[in-house]
Predict the 3D structure of the following.
Amino acid sequence: MTYASDARSLSEILAMYEADGFTSQFGVRPDGRIVCFSCHFEAAAEDFELVSLARTEGASDPDDMLAIAALKCPNCDCQGTLVLNYGPESSADDALVLQRLEAVDKSRENPTS
């Protein structure tokens, strides 16, 4: 997984992901769930594959603190993006989805045997 480390705008990050084939969109649902807008499959965030995660900075405006996740749907295999608020302006649903995506990704990087 890759993380954006420079200060890019939301539109720049979305354009980068779209150029890489992430053309579908996902949405947040209550209780840490995500819905694929291509096939309408809904499941726990940890069921979706997090391919990449980029963040906008927000140093001057907390409303600019966004996490853009490049995901793969476990049902239809489409690739798309999910935009989440993080930090002080984050909703409880956005924060839970982001936490679950990052936790699953970390466990894949460091499997316990």
Q: What stands out?
A: The chain has a mean pLDDT of 87. Residues 2-108 form one domain. The chain is about 25% helix and 30% strand. Strands lie at 2-3, 24-29, 33-36, 42-44, 49-55, 66-72, 79-85.
